[in-house]
Amino acid sequence: MKTFLTMKQLGAGLLGRGGRWLALAACGLFLASCGEEPAKTPGGAAAEAGGGAKKKQIVVGFSQIGAESGWRTANTESIQSEAKKRGIKLLFSDAQGKQENQINALRSFIAQGVDVIAFSPVIVSGWEPVLQEIKKAGIPVVLTDRAVDAKDDTLYATFIGSDFIEEGHRAGEWLAKATGGKAVIAELVGTPGAAPAIDRKKGFEEVLAKNPGMKIIKSQSGDFNRTKGKEVMEAFLKSPEAKQITALYAHNDDMALGAIQAIEEAGLKPGKDIVVVSIDGVRGAFQAMADGKLNCTVECNPLIGPQLFDAVEALLAKKTLPKRTGVMESVYEQSQAKEALPNRKY
Ligand code: GYE
Predict the structure, then answer these.
(1) Hey, where are the domains in the chain?
(2) Each residue's pLDDT tens digit, 278-320
(3) Distance, CA of 193 to CA of 183 (rounded, Å)
């Protein structure tokens, strides 16, 4: 069974959602093309000094969540390498999974007078005060990967990232098709309060609502990392309901890969005794599919460095950006894994 979405299917899906995603995709193309234009004269702090002097280097402060997953490592690499390629000075700060560290980093970027601040917010809430401070300092903000729940959308210029609800739909729809709509599911949830954890659950549950033969009987956070994914799956498999579990839905591949180990250690066959579907599409997931241990991964593209710096350059050229820019993604299953593996970029 092939579930790779063709451009036509994707287009139909995009239009099906009121054209919103089509618009996002178009914006993405617009942004992508910015990078190919001849060098612009940035405004604000990065403005060219008078008398034709050399252009001031653009300085961007970026607060990353941490290094919890293969996805995150690829995302960091994409951002760092793209900054280097464009000669942009990147002040990179790793928050080690803590919002408090991110807020401190954002304040230090204000103090250093960077041209643009970008960050991937670990959770959705609690950002208004620091975003107000950044706004007061007149520094544009680009959100990457994860959204915030701030009501005032003038607190950031644009958000570049995936549609996590749609990813949850895709995982649920794949599972419904693969199991004929019958599944007793254990769910490994991402970091509590994080946009992808909230939305991937929501999207998946919307599909379950239409499939009465599918239900979640276990649901717990594995914090988007492999170690916790394994630990939580071990606990699921020791619970009184363990024998009922026929499927695992993990909000990311790393937790699924940890859980696959736990399933094997419990003497069961992942991919057969328990059908496993997860999200991200990291290389390890493709390997696990090629080995028959993972059944499906819903792609979530971390390589957003070029889009981020297109946005930075556009903002410094005083352009107005769309509030949201999406990323093109697909769904892959075992039959496609061997062929796709050598071409995976993360
Ligand atoms: O799926 C997960 C990472 O925010 C989309 O964060 C990202 C998620 C990704 O830890 O692997």
Answers:
(1) 59-161+303-327, 164-300
(2) 999 999 999 999 999 999 999 999 999 999 999 999 999 999 9
(3) 26
CATH code of domain 164-300 = 3.40.50.2300
Mean pLDDT confidence for 138-142: 98
Task: Find residue 297's DSSP bridge partners.
Answer: 278, 332
b/e burial code for range 165-176 (CB count within 10 A of at least 16 → b): bbbbbbbbbbbb
Ligand 1 proximity of 146 Cβ (cutoff 6 Å): yes
Question: For ligand 1, is residue 72 a contact (CB within 6 Å)?
Answer: yes
> What's the 254 CA to ligand 1 centre distance in angstroms?
9
Please determine, for residue 178, whether its predicted confidence score (pLDDT) is greater than 50: yes
Length of the chain: 346
- Is residue 245 within 8 A of residue 257, CB to CB? The reply is no
DSSP 270: B
Are the C-beta atoms of 278 and 71 separated by less than 8 Å? no
In short, whether 68's Cβ falls inside 6 Å of ligand 1 is yes
190 C-alpha to center of ligand 1: Å?
8
Q: Tell me how many degrees the CA angle 212-260-265 measures, rounded to the nearest 5.
A: 115
Pick the more confident residue, 193 or 13. Answer: 193
C-beta of 218 in contact with ligand 1 (< 6 A): no
Reported as a single tens digit per residue, the pLDDT across 199-231 is 999 999 999 999 999 999 999 999 999 999 999
Pocket flag, ligand 1, residue 196 (CB < 6 Å) = yes
Q: Taking all residues of the chain, what is their mean pLDDT, rounded to a whole number?
A: 88
* Residue with the two structure tokens 């593996």: 341
pLDDT of residue 55: 80
As assigned by CATH, the class of the 59-161+303-327 domain is alpha beta
Residue whose CB lies within 8 A of the most ligand 1 atoms, among 63, 75, 198, 252, for a mutation test:
252
